[in-house]
Design brief:
It is a single chain. It is built from 13 helices and 7 strands. It is α/β, with parallel strands linked by helices and 289 residues long. It has 3 domains: 2-48; 51-194, Alpha-Beta Plaits (2-Layer Sandwich); 202-288, PucR C-terminal helix-turn-helix domain (Arc Repressor Mutant, subunit A, Orthogonal Bundle). Strands 1, 2, 3, 4, 5, 6 and 7 form a 7-stranded mixed β-sheet that branches. The longest helix has 32 residues, at 17-48. This is PucR family transcriptional regulator. Pfam families: GGDEF_2 (PF17853), HTH_30 (PF13556). Residues 224-278 form the PucR C-terminal helix-turn-helix domain.
């Protein structure tokens, strides 16, 4: 009805087809944008039912907590609108290309069974800091699928204001590992890259470590390296490793023998060191795929 009245009013003012086309085009675009903004506002209002979104005061409190500054838990809770005397799992989401995807990822977590009562802080236009008060690292891994263009790192679950701080610090450290190595891995737990974090803080030292540990294996086919890493991660169980790699057991055994012949560090001598070097290369390999 309103649109008809607007068209009638325009026709009463002019009979110039070009001018009418321009005026009606601008009006239709304005109506479309209003509808789009209204839908987005309703979506965000629904999201707020599930999550506390940090305002400027809450962001200041977060900065104090994660920076290790002394702050009374009661004061921090009042500023955050979020209870600290419980277990927290921190994660960081960021994107270089898909900011709408970042919001979809946050919404996906908020609407999951473990997302009720989470705290979300906009660290930047392309990054979100999140604390989930329920659920485990594995449950978070399960609800982070399906959103392309967004990377996530997860800290260990920990208790209280100190747990709020340390879990976030671990998620930050895992993010730093991926950035240092140029890895596009979508979801990473700090527990899986803790040793790599220590080894890669100095890129030159990390490169030397990999070369010294792996020898010729460092330049070998990535399938060979991935087989050895998976074999170690599966507790040196060939059957489990073959299942995870979707390969025949005999194929896995041949690859392991070939890799061991190339490696400067033998599997029987120092599997932990070998696994660390292979994991560094595995994270880098993903950049090239």
């Amino acid at each position: 009805m309103a649109w008809r009245r607007w068209v009638s009013a325009c026709l009463a003012q002019t009979d110039d087809p070009a001018l009418l086309t321009e005026v009606l085009d601008i009006a239709s675009q304005s109506i479309f944008q209003f509808a789009t903004d209204s839908v987005e506002a309703l979506r965000l209002a629904g999201l707020e039912d599930h999550a506390a979104t940090a305002d400027a005061q809450a962001l200041a409190a977060i900065e104090l907590i994660v920076g290790g500054a002394p702050i009374a838990p009661e004061l921090a809770e009042a500023q955050l609108g979020y209870r600290l005397a419980r277990r927290h799992t921190a994660l960081i989401l960021w994107t270089a290309t898909d900011r709408p995807g970042l919001d979809r990822a946050v919404e996906q977590i908020a609407r999951s069974p473990i997302g009720h009562g989470l705290l979300v802080a906009a660290a930047s236009v392309a990054a979100r800091w999140i604390w989930v008060p329920s659920g485990s690292e594995d449950e978070l891994l399960g609800c982070l699928g399906g959103v392309d263009g967004v990377q996530a790192t997860i800290g260990r679950t920990a208790y209280g204001i100190e747990g709020f701080r340390t879990s976030h610090g671990e998620a930050l450290a895992a993010q730093a590992v991926l950035i240092r190595l140029g890895s596009p891995r979508r979801v990473t737990r700090f527990a899986d890259v803790e040793l790599v974090d220590v080894l890669t803080r100095d890129r030159e030292v990390a490169d030397t470590f990999v070369t010294r540990t792996l020898g010729e294996l460092a330049q070998a086919d990535r399938t060979l390296r991935r087989t050895v890493l998976t074999y170690i991660q599966c507790g040196f169980n060939t059957t489990r490793g073959a299942s995870r790699l979707y390969a025949h057991r005999n194929t896995v055994e041949r690859r392991i023998a070939r890799a061991d012949a190339l490696s400067a560090t033998k599997l029987d001598d120092n599997p932990a060191q070998l696994a660390a070097a292979l994991l560094i290369l595995d994270l880098r390999d993903q950049e090239e795929r």
